[in-house]
């Protein structure tokens, strides 16, 4: 028994010495570090692979949708409180998938802009919108359509030539077209490119609006260099009306500054009577939002406008 106990103790000490000698070696820590790096690299590889697969799949789907003409416009009316009627509509983008599912722009617009596919999509939407609203624009010379454009439209070599061509094809008056440009695009380094093209557009009779104002970093002094004649207050600020939030107090400042440089103000995202009362009190006549109407397909827009005239 004593011999057996001594043998066990000797065996344990030997194993313990081997364990200490092995695991205390510097190269052992290097092995562990290498394993960690391999694990992290493998996870990172999977993430990158999934991202690229998703990116490629979305881009492929967008290209296919363009060929199949699955992108189409809907129209959100703009209400003119002073005239007590609808004086225009913003053209918004939708995508109807193969399974008849409506895909909202938030899910694909970034990819479309990054890949440049936003150009053919925009031209496709403009063409359909001109075709669908030609009779509305002709019947009411004061009615306008507004389209959203981004930085890429200004630098694309063919977009505006094709856009002008569509105006001619459908006999659309430039005076009835409002182009909305998001504030973040103004902060691009190619300011001269924007200003030159904007001046050209204004000379042709188009109106220009800075969209989502207040969500970026463009100062009112910065805006003076751009030939805008409209400013759209972002719904973030409209929804803050009556909440006593910090963003609510910014509305007065934005409205006051816009008036100082003679910009016509459009309020978007209007949903409550309280918001309307505040906006009218501050002299804002052009109102857009679910309080008046959601975005509509062309047949419902025509019914709305027709019912308005009865």
UniProtKB/TrEMBL annotation:
SUPFAM superfamilies (alphabetical): EAL domain-like
Domain EAL: 55-309
Pfam families: EAL
Gene Ontology MF term list: cyclic-guanylate-specific phosphodiesterase activity
CDD domains named in the record: EAL
PANTHER family with a match to the protein in the record: CYCLIC DI-GMP PHOSPHODIESTERASE PDEF, CYCLIC DI-GMP PHOSPHODIESTERASE PDEN-RELATED
Protein name per its UniProtKB record: EAL domain-containing protein
Species, as recorded: Legionella drancourtii LLAP12
């Amino acid at each position: 028994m004593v011999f057996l106990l001594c043998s066990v103790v000797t065996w344990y000490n030997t194993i313990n010495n081997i364990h200490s000698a092995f695991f205390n070696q510097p190269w052992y820590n290097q092995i562990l570090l290498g394993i960690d790096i391999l694990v992290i690299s493998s996870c990172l590889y999977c993430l990158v692979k999934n991202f690229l697969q998703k990116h490629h799949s979305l881009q492929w789907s967008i290209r296919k949708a363009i060929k199949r003409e699955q992108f189409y416009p809907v129209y959100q009316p703009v209400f003119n409180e002073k005239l007590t009627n609808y004086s225009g509509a913003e053209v918004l983008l939708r995508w109807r998938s193969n399974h008849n599912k409506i895909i909202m722009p938030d899910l694909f617009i970034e990819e479309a802009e990054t890949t440049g596919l936003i150009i053919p999509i925009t031209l496709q939407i403009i063409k359909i919108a001109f075709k669908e609203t030609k009779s509305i624009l002709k019947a009411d010379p004061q009615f306008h359509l507004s389209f959203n454009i981004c930085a890429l439209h200004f630098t694309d070599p063919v977009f505006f030539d094709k856009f002008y061509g569509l105006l001619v094809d459908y006999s659309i008056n430039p005076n009835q077209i409002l182009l909305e440009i998001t504030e973040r695009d103004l902060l691009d380094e190619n300011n001269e490119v924007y200003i030159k093209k904007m001046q050209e557009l204004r000379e042709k009779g188009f109106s220009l609006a800075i969209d989502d104002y207040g969500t970026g970093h463009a100062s009112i002094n910065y805006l003076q260099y751009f030939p805008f004649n409209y400013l759209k207050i972002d719904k973030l600020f409209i929804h803050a009306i009556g909440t006593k939030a910090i963003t609510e107090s910014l509305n007065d400042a934005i409205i006051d500054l816009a008036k100082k440089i003679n910009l016509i103000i459009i309020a978007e995202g209007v949903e409550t009577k309280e918001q309307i009362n505040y906006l009218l009190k501050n002299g804002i006549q052009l109102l857009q939002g679910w309080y008046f109407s959601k975005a509509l397909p062309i047949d419902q827009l025509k019914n709305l406008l027709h019912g308005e005239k009865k």
